[in-house]
Amino acid sequence: MEWTNDESSRTKASIASLRYTSDAFAALFCAPLKRTPEINRGYYARISAVNHVIREFCRREGPTTQVVNVGAGFDSLFWRLSAEKTCFARVVDVDSEHVTRHKIRAIDKWPQLKAEVENPLTEDCALHSDRYHAISCDATKARKLTQRLVNECHVCDTNPILFVFECVLLYWTRDQTSGLISALSQAFPSSAFLVFDVFNTDDTFAHVMQDSLQSRDTPLLGVSSSVTLDQWKDKFAENGVQNVIAWDMNTVYDQLLSREDRQRVERLEFLDETELLTQLLSHYCLVFARSRASLNNRPNAAFASATSARAASRVPFPARAPQQCGPRFPPSSSSTTPAGPKWSSHHPFRAHPHNLVGKKSCKDGVCSLVFADGVCVFNNLGILCAKRKDIRERLRVREALRVDPFRTGFGHKSQAFKIIDLAVIRLCFQVYLESAPDVFDVALEPLVSEPIFDKKAMSELAIAKLSHYSAPVGGGQDIVLLCDRVVKDDIRIRFWEERDDCLYWEAFADFKASDIHKHFAISFRSPKYCDLSVQNAIPVNVELVRPSDGGTSESLPFYLLPDQKRQRPPPPQSRPLRTNQMEEYVTARADVDFDFDVTSLPIDDYFWCDSRDTNHALLDITSREWNEEKTFACLQ
């Protein structure tokens, strides 16, 4: 199975270099491997979905969260979470001896990796530190794995723990998988499981994939028990893990991933036959399961948040809620605004004056529904924008209704004109449980969607024209860029270069918000290139970037020129000069350049230059024409 890790890790490094994902550490473990566009998008869907659930799990469970990555390979999960400032207690990578040794050598080699591993201790094909552990262990031997996690990696059985399996369980028999799930769920009552693996294995496409793996001595031992999503759920249910949700990757790609991010990715590489991607994703699934005591007794909460976040781009969408705490659940939906200038999930959110409108269940800008089957769908929702003169009144109504999910108050209504951005909102979702018949008073933690931008205010980024399409490698060239409307505090100009399909260099232009003229023109200085000693023009790309949502414009070609000083051209060959008075020859040769002063020569008004033949026509230079023609005459 080790060759599958090498191929997968190299593909992850490749898509990171192509800017599908943000992973500055993947290429430190292995060299990128160029793949086809449909495979790149498939890996993007896989990585984005898995990363989202892990981050959401850590956010909900807090700083005591533990993540065990079984069959981790060269995955850079620990470094990505650290770079994103995610709160967690420890990450444990488990794999074979060969893979673990390679990973430990890479950590010791690269300062970027070693800097995050605090107080490392390497012993017998294992690395232990304060928050990161890497061990080699046969995961099919559940008892031995459990003992090493507790004794060597100090995994606490009372704190929340998430076991991650990416393309691992399908290589095991059903008995091996059942034994591991049963042992882990019993040893760690607060455990949850995240699985990305193959399903729908009974069609021609799947048979070809199985034959290919079989020819490389890598059989899929669990294929017969992984044909449907229900069979994946049964693997957990039969071993005491009852709270399970499973999605095929087409649904994940279409409904869980951000629409804006999908659009960004789809612009990176042209994919003509999108049915190839659909066929590929239809054979993979994402499964999230939890033990009885995990996730603060909120089943599938981490996975549910991904679903509710899709409100930003698609309505209707399924909003998942707990399914065992009560017979009915009334979710309410309202609009919120971040308390700060950036649209971050870490900001305290406040009520927004925009109202939700719809055919049913919408009143005073708030939408409420009652449902009993665990799935709620908001149909035909719209957003009614508030005018500036109506902001305070709408917030006063919201305050009277006591719609304040994050309990941040309504003190901002007095300064609404200054701090509320009418061009962007988030939808907020909150579920209330029924403690008694028709009494919904148990509130769950609210969730918010991705930012929703007003298309009139947030147009698609586009570069109309540049005043210069080249600049010195030393930077500092003044350039004017004409573009569609941009927000002054939310725009950057990115220069970048690719070599061998990998990102080689990038830098951002130097300008301030005051350098943007009426949102449609930007005056900036070109950045400095990484190598100032180049001798030839370097082709690079330039594009607009919107930091708030990651949106980019189409890139334009740009050239960085060698930074050389202008030199004077070499002087022409000198020629002997003579006058028309044959008895007076000027035989001396003089070096003639552009600064030559003809008036210093003792010659007549009739004057010519000669090298070999003296029978040239005379050049008549009168005193009237002297100042205009003297230099020309000397250079003939």
From TrEMBL:
UniProt xrefs under Pfam families: LCM, RHD_dimer, RHD_DNA_bind
The protein's name in its UniProt record: [phosphatase 2A protein]-leucine-carboxy methyltransferase
Species the sequence originates in: Medioppia subpectinata
Domain of life: Eukaryota
RHD domain: residues covered: 348-459
UniProt entry keywords in alphabetical sequence: Methyltransferase, S-adenosyl-L-methionine, Transferase
Family the entry assigns: Belongs to the methyltransferase superfamily. LCMT family.
GO BP annotation list: methylation; regulation of transcription by RNA polymerase II
E.C. number(s) listed in UniProt: 2.1.1.233
One GO CC term on file: cytosol
GO terms of molecular function: DNA-binding transcription factor activity; protein C-terminal leucine carboxyl O-methyltransferase activity; RNA polymerase II transcription regulatory region sequence-specific DNA binding
